[in-house]
Q: What sequence folds into this?
């Protein structure tokens, strides 16, 4: 066990975990943050996505020691009910999910994509999402939400 | 808009004494109250015969509804909210649900079979109508005005023309029980109750039929939702299971020394061939499950090589048969037909492969009350099953449903919860079990493999004179969809408890597809025996419309073959053999919306370019729901790759409760069924399921999503609602296969429609 300093959603935390323990379990089990979610533990689906220095990463394979000192943002920290992130607003308006278990991957990957590429083409969007899984098949609503978010962020820019 | 109530949907739980206590799942400090049920307490399921078992009114006017139904990601809670708000004349925001807690909700059989609105909403509608009637009676006395002079707006009853004379539902009945007796009929999915209040005429609806946003979507996107993965119980340990190294293998030995050094390791639990580890932290449990040295027997191969699956099914002696229909004399008519097209279609085992692989928490007290938190679709059946597993009466077990990932049937969440029960029993503490991806994909239940053989007689004019259908399938009920016995659970089977409640479920013509009106029909169905009696990683059960996608793939592809043999347009050919006006309507509408050009398939001239384009149609009837889907595809003749460019889906499920939620469910079902049509096949060798993760069980990804999806809803307010969760999963594979045929002339008769199979079918077209 080792004490590791994590900065999550703007707050500093110290967690006492095995340095090889993936970030996912430190966030979920030590800090009681329910998003990210466990989907595969293999980096194949994206349910465990968090933002690490504003990049969408898979927390299920990332040793907690490598996240120390970085800015970690989970879905809980992206926006609030009173002030949702434009991506969250667009996904909500589009009612983009069925069960929503996978949505950390889609929402946070969309946020990272639009930060880097504010007006993604359809092909760029699909490419950014190709490594994500949604078992319910909510892709049509998700794509509509990303287009809507891109439009709204463009207007407010 | 009413003031936003401070009560949210999961704040209430009935403790052992029957009181309501405020609590939130996020707040672990109140969970001990659930756990503190004393050993003498009994956890009876509320009897449905009283109104207050279903509905209570809070002092602030909030309406609390208790239902044995649960949400599995398709928005049923929102639909129920609209139905109750409609009957009570309150804003939907006032209505809050408690779902699937066996101590707080009546047993409605859980959810399944696309029945949640069709059947499950009936008692809720009647209960709300009766509550409204009773409230109006109370208001009549309070306001001194006859019933017929009263009006209700958002839970405020007032006297017509005298707005000052008013009283709220909360003031009339808040906190008191509406103890009216209800007439109970049916059980399980069909449970219904009727009281003194009569539901409204659908023509007067103002809330039902509106696109209310789903109650769960915003909090999920804002990161404020709790799934069952987020249940944390004080003192909870973490468990993982270790499955046999080969299907049917028995435990020889294990070396606990291999895991004892792991910090936080607690115990290895062994019961027959059931093996699990328990640790103080999740990471320690994961490490222990990986490190545990276990020796298993070299079991004989339980399965044939995958390439021989369908030969095995054809040659093995069936365990059950059923004649679905014998009309006229198909054999005689076939013998005299001008042409006799025949075809065999094959559909593989498929996996639920849920997004979350299954999670549950169990707190077993053999001398008291056991509590299990699970996302399984049928909590009351789980209560029965866990009681049998533990050897205690059902009223000593409480199952609290908490939403898990979308489950599409009986995916294995039930087995996860049983694993938690077994581990908690062994360590005497609450245990949370999180299945791994492999636990779900390799060891979760499977949808059955199905073969459909068909032959038809065509006259010289291309009229169908005879139709012969025979299916051979693994049973969709080898693992009974109701997990109400111990032997239903994988973990229990590994301990040696036999699965005694499996049932034979058949791939039946007419049940799992449209029954066209041919003059002579003979349809029968066979079930082939399971490979292993118990604990098989290929055990079969319900996966989103058990035999529907496989059977409809076969019959609707074969209809297309018959149309081609008759030189007829596929839409016009189908219409000739339909006598159901609503089926004709969805098919006609789908063709119209798509811009269907009437002509026979395949498209001529075939062309020689690398990319060939085509369109195909398929139709289904599931219960009372009608669906027609048109797929437009591009096929790469060189690689065999197929891309669906567009879907048009026309859907008629009677009265529509929430059109936007319905569109969302259909759109997602189209993508999921596209995935099953093009990609999904459980792979195995003689001793293992080798599809273990998203690489070895690939499903549709972003690049596979069609460029355009058009959904047309046909609303029939005069017809009671029928199911919508499953029907759209049926026609997709045949629509795509028929479009591939239209584009290229190549017919693929084995699912999924992979590039290799399309290439092979294309190669077979080349003249020898």
A:
């Amino acid at each position: 066990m080792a004490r590791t300093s994590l900065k999550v959603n703007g707050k500093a935390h110290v967690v006492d975990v095995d340095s090889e323990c993936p970030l996912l379990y430190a966030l979920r089990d030590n800090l009681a943050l329910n998003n990210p979610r466990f989907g595969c533990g293999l980096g194949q689906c994206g349910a465990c996505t968090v933002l690490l220095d504003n990049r969408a990463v898979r927390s299920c394979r990332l040793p907690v020691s490598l996240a120390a000192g970085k800015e970690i943002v989970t879905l809980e920290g992206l926006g609030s009910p009173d002030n949702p992130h434009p991506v969250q607003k667009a996904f909500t308006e589009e009612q983009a999910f069925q069960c929503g278990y996978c949505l950390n991957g889609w929402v946070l990957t969309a946020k990272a994509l639009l930060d880097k590429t504010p007006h993604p083409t359809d092909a760029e969007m699909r490419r950014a999402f190709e490594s994500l899984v949604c078992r319910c098949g909510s892709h049509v609503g998700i794509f509509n939400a990303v287009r809507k978010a891109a439009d709204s962020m463009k207007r407010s820019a | 808009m009413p003031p936003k109530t401070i009560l949210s949907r999961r704040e209430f739980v009935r403790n052992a004494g029957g009181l309501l206590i405020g609590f939130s799942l996020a707040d672990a400090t109140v969970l001990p109250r659930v756990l503190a049920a004393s050993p003498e307490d009994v956890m009876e399921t509320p009897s449905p015969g009283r109104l207050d078992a279903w509905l209570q009114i809070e002092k602030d006017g909030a309406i609390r509804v208790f239902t044995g139904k649960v949400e599995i990601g398709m928005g049923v809670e929102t639909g129920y909210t609209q139905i109750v708000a409609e009957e009570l004349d309150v804003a939907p925001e006032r209505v809050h649900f408690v779902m699937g807690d066996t101590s707080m909700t009546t047993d409605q059989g859980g959810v399944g079979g696309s029945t949640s609105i069709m059947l499950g909403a009936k008692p809720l509608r009647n209960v709300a109508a009766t509550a409204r009637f009773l409230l109006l009676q109370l208001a009549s006395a309070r306001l001194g005005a006859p019933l017929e002079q009263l009006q209700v707006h958002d839970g405020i009853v007032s006297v017509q023309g005298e707005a000052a004379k008013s009283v709220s539902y909360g003031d009339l009945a808040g906190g008191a029980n509406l103890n009216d007796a209800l007439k109970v009929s049916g059980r399980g999915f069909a449970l219904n109750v009727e009281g003194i209040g009569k539901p409204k005429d659908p023509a007067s609806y103002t809330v039902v039929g509106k696109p209310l946003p789903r109650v769960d979507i915003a909090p999920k996107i804002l990161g404020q939702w709790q799934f069952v993965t987020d249940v944390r119980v004080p003192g909870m340990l973490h468990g993982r299971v270790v499955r046999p190294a080969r299907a049917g293998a028995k435990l020889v030995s294990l070396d606990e020394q291999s895991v004892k050094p792991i910090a936080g390791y607690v115990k290895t639990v062994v019961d027959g061939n059931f093996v699990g580890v328990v640790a103080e932290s999740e990471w320690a449990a994961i490490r222990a499950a990986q490190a545990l040295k276990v020796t298993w027997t070299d079991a004989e191969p339980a399965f044939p090589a995958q390439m021989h699956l369908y030969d095995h099914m054809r040659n093995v002696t069936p365990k059950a048969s059923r004649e679905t229909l014998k009309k006229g004399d198909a054999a005689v008519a076939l013998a005299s037909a001008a042409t006799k097209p025949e075809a065999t279609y094959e559909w593989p085992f498929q996996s639920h492969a849920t997004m979350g692989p299954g999670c549950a928490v169990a707190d077993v007290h053999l001398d008291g009350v056991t509590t299990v938190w699970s996302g399984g679709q049928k909590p009351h059946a789980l209560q029965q099953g866990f009681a049998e597993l533990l050897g205690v009466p059902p009223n000593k077990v409480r199952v609290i449903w908490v939403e898990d990932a979308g489950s599409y049937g009986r995916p294995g969440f039930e087995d996860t919860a049983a694993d938690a029960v077994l581990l908690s029993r062994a360590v005497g503490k609450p245990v949370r079990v999180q299945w791994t991806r492999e636990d779900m994909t390799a060891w979760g239940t499977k949808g059955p493999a199905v073969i459909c053989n068909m032959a038809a007689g065509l006259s010289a004019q291309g009229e169908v004179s005879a139709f012969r259908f025979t299916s051979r399938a693994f049973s969709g009920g080898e693992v009974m969809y109701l997990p109400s016995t111990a032997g239903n659970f994988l973990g229990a089977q590994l301990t040696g408890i036999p699965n005694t409640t499996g049932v034979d479920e058949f791939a039946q013509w007419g049940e799992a597809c449209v029954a066209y009106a041919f003059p002579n029909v003979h349809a029968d169905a066979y079930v082939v025996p399971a490979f292993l009696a118990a604990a098989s990683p290929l055990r079969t059960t319900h996966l989103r419309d058990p035999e529907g996608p496989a059977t409809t793939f076969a019959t609707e592809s074969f209809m297309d073959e018959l149309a081609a043999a008759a030189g007829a347009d596929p839409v016009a050919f189908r219409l000739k053999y339909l006598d159901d006006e609503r089926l004709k309507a969805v098919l006609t509408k789908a063709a119209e919306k798509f811009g269907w050009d009437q002509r026979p398939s395949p498209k001529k001239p075939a062309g020689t370019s690398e990319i060939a384009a085509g369109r195909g149609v398929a139709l289904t009837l599931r219960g009372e729901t009608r669906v027609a889907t048109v797929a437009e595809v591009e096929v790469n003749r060189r690689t065999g790759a197929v891309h669906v460019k567009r879907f048009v889906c026309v859907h008629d499920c009677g009265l529509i409760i929430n059109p936007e939620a319905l569109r969302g469910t259909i759109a997602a079902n189209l993508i999921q069924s596209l995935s099953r049509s093009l990609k999904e096949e459980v792979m195995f060798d003689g001793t293992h399921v080798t599809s273990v993760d998203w690489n070895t069980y690939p499903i549709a990804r972003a690049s596979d999503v069609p460029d355009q999806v058009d959904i047309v809803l046909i609303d029939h307010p005069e017809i009671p609602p029928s199911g919508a969760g499953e029907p759209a999963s049926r026609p997709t594979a045949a629509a795509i296969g028929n479009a591939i045929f239209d584009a290229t002339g190549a017919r693929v008769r084995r699912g999924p429609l992979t590039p290799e199979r399309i290439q092979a079918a294309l190669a077979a077209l080349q003249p020898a």
Summary: Residues 72 and 285 of chain B are 28 Å apart (CA to CA). Chain B touches chain A through 63 residues (CB under 8 Å). Chain B has three domains: 12-225, 230-298+358-435, 561-765. The domain at 230-298+358-435 of chain B is CATH 3.30.365.10 (Aldehyde Oxidoreductase; domain 4).
